[in-house]
Design brief:
The chain is mainly β. The protein has a single domain, classed as Jelly Rolls (Sandwich). Helix content is about 0%, strand content about 60%. It contains no helices and 11 strands. Strands 1, 2, 3, 4, 6, 9 and 11 form a 7-stranded antiparallel β-sheet that branches. A hairpin with a 4-residue loop joins strand 2 and strand 3. The chain starts with 7 loop residues before the first strand and ends with a strand.
Amino acid sequence: MSQFADVTVLKQANVYFEGKVTSRKIVFPDGSFKTLGIMLPGEYEFGTDAAEVMEIMQGTLKVLLPGAEWRTVTAGESFDVPAGIRFKLVVETLVDYCCSYIR
């Protein structure tokens, strides 16, 4: 899906790691939401409350999930993140991403 219809976009950005990672929340009519964002090259560690699917629209990164080995993810690919964990990313090039939250 290359676009979303009938959504609300929150103007306030989520800004992490001194501005190297940003996202904006979009809310669907049913109350579900996604975030759309950009990550600059660097190393990051995130924590999750809800399960997520991270879809990479542009760029390349490596992800390390608990109990797994580093995995390279490139444009057009995605990866699942379980709820309640911490995971690491090494962003190799500018990454444009869409994060879907699983209820």
